[in-house]
Each structure stands twice: as structure tokens, then as C-alpha cells.
Write a structure and sequence with these properties.
Shape: globular
Strand order of the largest sheet: 1-7-6-5-4-2-3
Strand content: 5-15%
CATH architecture of the largest domain: 3-Layer(aba) Sandwich
Largest sheet: 7 strands, mixed
Number of domains: 2
CATH superfamily of the largest domain: Type I PLP-dependent aspartate aminotransferase-like (Major domain)
Structural class: alpha/beta
CATH topology of the largest domain: Aspartate Aminotransferase, domain 2
Bound molecules: pyridoxal-5'-phosphate
Number of strands: 12
Helix content: 25-40%
Length: about 425
């Protein structure tokens, strides 16, 4: 019944379910520990034989209620919160790909994720082949190896605003016996639910639209429960063979559709500990309650701004999938008919100096590292978020040196356009 509610209702009502006489609003369980009457009760929790709370690094009622809400929004089976989007992407991959493993990853992704997979995880013995997401099925197939464990991509890439052909990627992953992990941060489940198109696991930097107010860094991992680990048992021994650190539990046998999230919680969260504070989960929940209203306004404003920039003589190019001449327009219409997101990329005519002069002349639009929150902001990835990447890597990832990432907020759009128009005069 509950899952039958429409997404707007889920934004408000899912997650926290108060019993009679309990707080109407999700409480902040700001407690590291939970009390039990006898030691056997606690022992059963440690053995994963009973459900309940014992230590917030593993589970906390506030965090779990928010994870349950995001799981319902995505239409998933189980979910967990992490302390950041970085942790979510790391855990999602590391949960099934250990030293000696390999992943195939779209090269159009957030710079931090690119570093994580391309550099840091390489030091842990995990290799990553970056692929052009627009390549043909056959070209993409060539990237797979016998030790490939997962495919990773972003629904709408940050900052190059490439829209993923989710069905193509899901088919590719499944034909090679591995799951598709999709970072759905920019689209949010309001605009796209990747499980409906075949993705198996979804991640989020909840720091962005979900929180929406730039108050709390956070992440989430949601599992559809659809990938059959046992059917590919030798590829995923972590899920299909005994975990000696839990008395020989076989996650896929004992937890079925919940295996992936149970393992990520019981092993990775236990050992690596990237949990959000309950206070941050509470703030995230406040953001989620208005996600549907904000996403609609972000998209409406962004469409108007993209059209304004597209028609401006001092603007060289605009990349926003809502523009009908955009190469990703068709894919956006298919996967996100209600709108994509509030983020676009564009370049002004002239050199890098011109771009800097334009940015420095903005008044309402702030220069910040952040993206995808209520306030309009701008960033030059080549000199900010992606500055560790070489010129060749930038080009490969579709990030032109003149690219500016503009994140449209939910202010009055006329004020945003007036600010941009004024700053363009400075060039
Ligand atoms: C698409 C995407 N995924 C993941 C991340 C990392 O998230 P966080 O900053 O919450 O660690 C970001 C950050 O910008 C992002 O844009």
C-alpha cells in the first residue's frame, strides 16, 4: 500500500513511522549506544541473528528512517546512509570489488569520483577502465575483462552534463554478468529512477539537491535487490561464500535481496566507519520533504536561464539537456521527461580571462565549490574541482578548459537572468 503512494507523498511521509503517542516529526537519536536488559539479547544482535540497535556506527534509528525514505523514493529494496557521497561511491564499489578486481566506469563523472576510482582505489589493487559513455555497445564491451565486477556511471554527469543511456549500460553490465551502479545525484529520484531502466544499485551525494540547503555533507546507497549474486557466485565471493568475521554467514543466502546492503553495513561500515551523524540525517530529512517542490523550480528556472544564455551573443555554447538542439535532448526526454536538473555548463566567447572577468562580475550568483542547492552558484571546474586532472584527462572527460558550471537555484528567475546579463556586459 505504502509503496503505492506518489513520489510527492513519499517525500513527506516515507521513512519515520511514529507509533501511538510518539513524535510526529523524526526525532534525532543523538546516542551512540542502546541499552539491553541481558547480554544474550545483545549477543544475538552481534551475530546478526536479531534486529535492533546497539551502536550508531552500525545502525541508528534516525539514520535508518532517512535511508528508508530514500529507498522508497528510488523504488529500491534496501538502503543505507553514508557520511558523504564519496563514501557512498567507495562503499558501493568496494562491497563487490576487492584487490585484483576491475570496474568499467564512464569517463564523464565527478572529478572526486574519477580520482577515487582512477588513483586511490588503484593503490588498493582495484583497476578501472574509463570509457566514453556515448560509445557503441560493441566498443563498450571491449572494456570488460574476466575480473570485471561492476559498471559505474552518473545519470547526469557533473560537470559535463552528459545524460546516460541507462538501458544501454544496464544491458552491457548484465550481458557481462555484473551490476550497474548509477550515481543519481543530479537527477534525483524526482526526475529519474534508474531502477526502472535496469540499474541495480543507486548512489547519491545527498549533499546536493536532497539536502538542498548546503547544510550537511552526506551520501546514500540504495540496492534494487534485483541483481542475482548467486547466479554469478564465483565473481562475487564476498556475497556468496562464508564471512568468517560473522561466524560463516553467506550474505546472499541469509539475506537474499538485502544481501548487498547488509554486507556493506556489517562489514564496511563496521570496519571503515563513514556514518553520518544523526543530526545530519535529520537535516537531510528536512530537505527531502521539499525535494519535489524544489526540483520542479530548479528545472523551470534552469530552462529559462539556458534559453537566455543560448541566445546571447557573448555566449559561445551552452550544454543543457532541456534545450532541443542539445545532443542529449532525446535521452533526457526518455529518462527524465519531467526535467533534468538545475545544473548546466557553458562557455563565454573570448579567452580564459574573459570567463574570469565574467565570474568576478556576478553579484547574486556566488562562486562556490558547491552545486545543486537552493542558491544560484557558479564554478570553473578546470581551475577548481578538477584541477588535479591533466588537460588530456579534462578533454577525455568532456570538460573543456573554458567550461563554467552554473547551478541554478530557486530564486526568482528574473533576478538570476539580470545578474548574468549584467556580468556578461563586463566581457
Ligand atoms: C555526482 C556526484 N557524486 C558524488 C559526489 C561526492 O559527494 P560528496 O561531496 O557528498 O562527498 C559529488 C560531489 O560533488 C557529485 O557531484
Amino acid at each position: 500500500m505504502e509503496n503505492g503512494y506518489r513520489i510527492e507523498t513519499k517525500c513527506i511521509q516515507s521513512g519515520w513511522k511514529p507509533g501511538c503517542g510518539e513524535p510526529r516529526v523524526l526525532p534525532i537519536y543523538q546516542s551512540t549506544t542502546f541499552k539491553y536488559d541481558d547480554s544474550d539479547q545483545m549477543g544475538r544482535l552481534f551475530d546478526l541473528e536479531a534486529e535492533g540497535y546497539f551502536y550508531t556506527r552500525l545502525q541508528n534509528p534516525t539514520n535508518d528512517a532517512v535511508a528508508a525514505k530514500i529507498t522508497e523514493l528510488e523504488g529500491g529494496f534496501a538502503g543505507m546512509l553514508t557520511s558523504s557521497g564519496q563514501a557512498a561511491n567507495y562503499y558501493a564499489v568496494f562491497n563487490i570489488c576487492e584487490a585484483g578486481g576491475h570496474i568499467v566506469c564512464s569517463n564523464s563523472i565527478y572529478g572526486g569520483t574519477y580520482n577515487l576510482f582512477g588513483t586511490t582505489m588503484k593503490k588498493q589493487g582495484i583497476e578501472c577502465t574509463f570509457v566514453n559513455p556515448d560509445a557503441s555497445y560493441e566498443e563498450l564491451s571491449a572494456a570488460f575483462r574476466l575480473d570485471t565486477k561492476a559498471v559505474f556511471a552518473e545519470t547526469i554527469s557533473n560537470p559535463s552534463i552528459v545524460v546516460l543511456d541507462i538501458e544501454k549500460f544496464a544491458r552491457l553490465a548484465h550481458d557481462h554478468g555484473v551490476p550497474l551502479i548509477v550515481d543519481n545525484t543530479f537527477a534525483t529520484p524526482i526526475n529519474c529512477r534508474p531502477f526502472e531502466w535496469g540499474a541495480d544499485i543507486v548512489t547519491h551525494s545527498t549533499t546536493k539537491y536532497m539536502d538542498g540547503h548546503a547544510m550537511a555533507v552526506g551520501g546514500a546507497i540504495i540496492d534494487s535487490g534485483n541483481f542475482d549474486w548467486m547466479a554469478h557466485a564465483d565473481k562475487f565471493p564476498g556475497l556468496t561464500t562464508k564471512d568468517e568475521s560473522y561466524h560463516g554467514i553467506v550474505y546472499a543466502e541469509k539475506f537474499g535481496k538485502g544481501a548487498f546492503i547488509t554486507k556493506a553495513t556489517a562489514q564496511l561500515m563496521r570496519d571503515l566507519g563513514s556514518i553520518p551523524s544523526p543530526m545530519n540525517a535529520f537535516l537531510l530529512n528536512v530537505g527531502l520533504e521539499t525535494l519535489h517542490l524544489r526540483m520542479a523550480r530548479h528545472c523551470e528556472n534552469a530552462q529559462k536561464v539556458a534559453e537566455f544564455l543560448n541566445g546571447h551573443e557573448k555566449v559561445a555554447w551552452v550544454n543543457y539537456a532541456g534545450l532541443s538542439d542539445n545532443p542529449y535532448y532525446e535521452l533526457a526526454q526518455k529518462y527524465m521527461p519531467g526535467g533534468t536538473c538545475g545544473v548546466m555548463a557553458f562557455g563565454v566567447r573570448g579567452d580564459r580571462e574573459a570567463a574570469m572577468r565574467f565570474m568576478d562580475s556576478l553579484k547574486l550568483t556566488a562562486i562556490v565549490t558547491h552545486v545543486a542547492d537552493a542558491r544560484t552558484c557558479i564554478l570553473h571546474p578546470a581551475s577548481h574541482t578538477h584541477r588535479q586532472m591533466s588537460e588530456a584527462e579534462l578533454n577525455e572527460a568532456g570538460i573543456r578548459p573554458d567550461l563554467m558550471r552554473l547551478s541554478i537555484g530557486i530564486e526568482n528567475v528574473e533576478d538570476i537572468i539580470a545578474d548574468l546579463a549584467e556580468a556578461l556586459k563586463a566581457i
